[in-house]
Design goal:
By secondary structure, the protein is an all-alpha fold. The chain has one domain (4-100): Tetratricopeptide repeat domain (Serine Threonine Protein Phosphatase 5, Tetratricopeptide repeat, Alpha Horseshoe). The chain has six helices and no strands. The N and C termini lie far apart (35 Å).
């Protein structure tokens, strides 16, 4: 946090998300994640962080929809892993496909 002012706007938001998560402030982390996606809608990392915030709230349907953008980047494995984990208990076939990718 001490060096956050030297980072870009997107990086500062990511730092704030991580800080909020680390300090058990999930609502704040969600708000920063939504802001990050609004400002950087094409960034797979932003969508991934928003998806992670929804996952942490056990809002699996919103999590699945929010992480669709990262799938435009087939080498961004974090999105596939989170999708598979989120759907494993409810949609086994979807989860299996996500894990395979």
């Amino acid at each position: 946090m001490a060096l956050a002012d030297k980072a870009s706007e997107g990086e500062r938001l990511m730092i704030r998300i991580l800080e909020a998560n680390g300090n058990a402030k999930p609502k704040e982390a969600l708000e920063y994640s939504e802001e990050l996606v609004a400002k950087f809608p094409g960034d797979e990392r932003a969508h991934f962080l928003l998806g992670t915030a929804y996952f942490g709230r056990q809002d699996y349907d919103r999590r699945s929809r929010s992480s669709r953008n990262p799938f435009d980047h087939p080498t961004f494995s974090g999105a596939y892993n989170l999708l598979a984990t989120a759907t494993a208990g409810r949609k086994y076939d979807d989860a299996e496909q996500a894990f395979k990718k």
